[in-house]
Amino acid sequence: MPKELADNLARRFPQETAVQSNYLPTLRAKLSLNSAGFQDAINRLRTASLYEMGDPGAAYDWQALYPVYVRGEAYLAARDGNRAAGEFQKILDHRGIVLYEPIGALANLQLGRAYLMAGEAAKAKAAYNDFLMLWKDADPDIPILKQAQAEYAKLQ
């Protein structure tokens, strides 16, 4: 079903740069992570790299840097902590582009995971701590928060 929705979007907006160069590569890369694998996802995001630092259009309620986040996820799947860290750090370095999008907070958690994978325990702890501080008042039953807390506890 998601593939069909992406194909429909591609047919409906063949000349729309934001759709063709940002949304669709990102959606298809995310789908690839669930099926074809990390290399296919990374390849699909090449087109988006030209546009990912811009605003693809508030009319679609989709902010920039989602391609960066998904690329970071792909590098995590590839077990390449250093490259993943670079992608998530890019999000944190450009908070003014991300604004209120969830990837702004989640980049801290993913950065912690990337640093841990790269063998940078101290940096991982700091990134996890940043995430947990952002979410200190969140509902304690949120699954991603519980998972982050468990991962952080293992670092202590």
Secondary structure layout:
Layout: H1 2-12, H2 17-34, H3 38-44, H4 66-77, H5 81-93, H6 95-98, H7 103-117, H8 121-134, H9 143-155
Helix pairs in contact: 1-2, 2-3, 2-4, 3-4, 4-5, 4-7, 5-7, 7-8, 8-9
Identify the notable features of this structure and list them briefly.
Serine Threonine Protein Phosphatase 5, Tetratricopeptide repeat; 156 residues; mainly alpha
In short:
By secondary structure, the protein is an all-alpha fold. It has nine helices and no strands. It is globular.
Plain-language structure description:
It is built from nine helices and no strands. It is mostly helical. The chain has a single domain, classed as Tetratricopeptide repeat domain (Serine Threonine Protein Phosphatase 5, Tetratricopeptide repeat, Alpha Horseshoe), CATH 1.25.40.10. Helix 3 packs antiparallel against helix 4 (66-77). The protein is globular, with a radius of gyration of 16 Å. It starts with a helix and ends with a helix.
